[in-house]
């Protein structure tokens, strides 16, 4: 049975979803196993997590040893660095940016070793306390699975890119238990401006649903279908005046986004320039992150909430979202700022993890701190301070990751809190628009126009929007050759002009043929033919013509097919009447001018 394109893509996306769903279970189980038998077994580290997360292992019962945490996290950085350096260097750092790079710049190709190396290395980094997220690694793992399946079926580079994106969507949809957000995220995260890869949405949606369905089977029935942060988050917008403090929150988040992105990239450059072996840099970053985490823990009077600056931080974020009275403005602000530092050290040093989850912790804690402060000053305007944690998560992620639509959907699926849709939209829109200069994922391109994956598509689109009449040289004086002129006469006339293509006309000036200077050169070494041969012997009567109304894409196809530099432009009502010549150089110049105009218009809009 032969499948149509839709059926084919449905089956391929189903296969990607199944594989990524299984990989998500393996990654989560491995991460929790490493955590239980390193931090738990040797440091007595308290288990962290949100209400809706499933724990595969029981917590350790030994006393908490803060300085053992530093030793474990450093060892984890060393093991992760060695694995990545020896087996798959592209698996270092944040996973999402690597997937974006493969889509745009590598024709969707991902080393087949990346998924399993990323699984182990990220599980070690996160399981031993490195500050990072699970979602970035699973995005790269899913991308690698999608690309590998595409290679097994010998798909084209275009199709491989779609499979890669479907794997990203499946990974995010499964790990966040947010299949709709995963599908949109895969299409949106590729670009830093308001653009989207429409072709990947349907395959990504199918893959995301399947991966989500597979992954949730590993979760206990009590939390299987509830949001990660529980069912108890329910807020409402009681008055439009509440949008004023939400706008102020957006401004604060913009400044935080600018600081975080610059600091993260500066940390990466510092580690890249450090005079130590590359595979030791993650260990150094982990050591510094551990010292910061434990130092602040001791300084805060052994407040366990501060430990959210290590690991995923979801436990602290859960308390911020729930309005836990034990979280003061000072603790929340400390976690928000210190999480930027520890994540930059853990991942910017080359540790294998994601920046996806930390963005939500930073934004959520910053939003909660702002909410508490605003509630103390204007309780009637800010009746629910914990609601600002929900909106802060979304706003910070939208501005830094450049994905506002999927962020709005994602936060709804994570929290189940639909009453804050309007302020979430407002804050996400503001941070997205005004944080455009600070891009965390450096391999994002502005739009499809800038993507190497779409250069051919835009060449066709732009050329089809231009007509021959807008480009060809109308006023150019052409040397016409009468069909009876001898080769001797033609040679002497060619010596007086730089013209390369010559129309041949009859007694009524009707064009009957065409020849080039190269056609004449074939006769130059046989002088006996000079007076015997004439223009009719040299010319070709069957040649390709274009009319002024033809589009330039049609003309460009003929330039390429015929390997010529000029095409005759004729009157569509009288094909023997020559109007001029269309040059390949003029066609390319017109394309470049249109692209430049588009860029200027885009810059003005921004």
Automatic annotation (TrEMBL):
- State where it is primarily located: membrane
Q: Where in the cell is it found?
A: Membrane
The UniProt keywords, alphabetically, are: CBS domain, Chloride, Chloride channel, Ion channel, Ion transport, Membrane, Transmembrane, Transmembrane helix, Transport
Q: Does the keyword Endoplasmic reticulum apply?
A: no
Pinpoint the CBS domain residues: 472-532, 539-597
Q: Which PROSITE patterns match?
A: CBS
Question: Looking at the keywords, is DNA-binding present?
Answer: no
Transmembrane stretches, start-end: 67-88, 162-187, 243-261, 282-300, 320-341, 353-375, 387-411, 418-441
> Which Gene3D superfamilies does the record associate with it?
CBS-domain, Clc chloride channel
What topology does the record note for this protein and the membrane?
A: Multi-pass membrane protein
Q: Which domain of life is it from?
A: Bacteria
Q: Which InterPro entries match?
A: CBS_dom (IPR000644), CBS_dom_sf (IPR046342), Cl-channel_core (IPR014743), ClC (IPR001807), ClC-type_chloride_channel (IPR050368)
The protein depicted here goes by the name Chloride channel protein
